[in-house]
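Re-run with default settings, no changes from the original entry. Doing this only to confirm the output is reproducible before filing.
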Amino acid sequence: MNILELYNLKKYYATQKAVDDISFTIEQGSIFGLLGPNGAGKTTLLRMITGIFYPDSGDINFRGKKFDTVNDIYKIGYMPEERGLYKKMRIGEQALYLAQLKGLSRQEAMKKIKEWFVKFEMQSWWNKKVEDLSKGMSQKLQFVITVLHEPPLLILDEPFSGLDPVNSNLIKDEIFNLAQKGTTIIFSTHRMEQVEEICDHIVLVNKGKKILDGSVKQIKQDCKENLFRIGFEQLPTTFDSTGFEVIHEESNSLVVKIKDGYKPASVLNNFLKQNASIISFNEILPSLNDIFIKKVNDTESTRQFQKV
């Protein structure tokens, strides 16, 4: 079941097409990566999903029905990259106030706040002000406030910014826990290693256009380049390179690219016939960071060509 469906969304400003005919769907309970360089249109998309902006055209369906900006907004938790905490307000009062704005009673809000404050070791913060917190501490508070009302859809924009490794792992574990309980999470970041570790599915946008959409696993398979690393007990001094070219040579391994028309097994057998002491033979899949850079650069090159 899809919790969110976007159809042909467009949002134009005077000088740019911020979102230009973008469509995609998000499955219930998935961790979904929304990626793109600065100025790609990610923030505009998120603001349309949360009802802050209205699209110029296109449709947004939430849980199978047209998105209702009055009622459905209470079912979304949004943690924007630009933090929205009141600097002079005491932390406990602020958490209580914002939880009630999301529809919780005072009693429900107090119960959940105490549970989260204990879980994140924030009990002693209750009477502190936001202006007295470090960036990492305010980040933890922002996360707690975002998830307090247990929304079925959670949007996290750069949630690890300013966090040390210990607190990054704490937030990451909670993201996985929420997803296991059925929460759908839209995760937006520039940190590709985090996306690769956390997300099931991604969409990559650039200059307002969608340029990539699919599961992380499938995208890496689709973008692979026939590269393999062959490990040896001792690197052979000579070998028959039929069917491949050497891309990189290391102390006891070769990175090779298998040519079109040849299979990995035939290259491996070729080495074995030459009595090479092979100890490993592994395919090299591209990282999401490599894919991101290549796809964005390809898009830019295409645009420059079209202008010419």
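The longest strand covers residues 2-12. The longest helix spans residues 288-307.
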